[in-house]
Amino acid sequence: MRTTIRQKNLSITPSLRSYIEKKIILPVRKLFEEVSAADFPILDLEFARTTRHHRKGKVYYAEATLTIGKTVLRAEVDDEDIRAACDILHDALAREILRFKGRTTAQNRRVARQAKKERYASEARLYRKGRIREEGS
């Protein structure tokens, strides 16, 4: 997994970088260990201070963009503290990832269910009156 960390109006200290790796990067890496090479995940993280003038309020901004093949998962958070923003970003990104994985699992099950139905279905269902145009007139 390729990871990019960007910063704007903010300096990322080594302790903050290790916190980001522990809270965001490692859990995402664990969730996508078995991904194929074609769907190589790319994680782009952006941390910023939205204003230099204000001292109080939600002045820190954190954004995560996870690209898996053609699918893009995004999460963005504003908060008063950059570490708290990382915590909330972790929760939001985990929610997006689980939703994505659940959706792909549901699609796989739906396709398997349809294949099983086609495999075990009787061919006589095609020959009822009205199913084939030439029959039963």
UniProtKB/TrEMBL annotation:
* Pfam families given in the database record: Ribosomal_S30AE
Record's superkingdom?
Answer: Bacteria
Q: Which NCBIfam families match?
A: yfiA
Protein name in UniProt: Ribosomal subunit interface protein
Species this chain originates from: Candidatus Sungbacteria bacterium RIFCSPHIGHO2_02_FULL_47_11
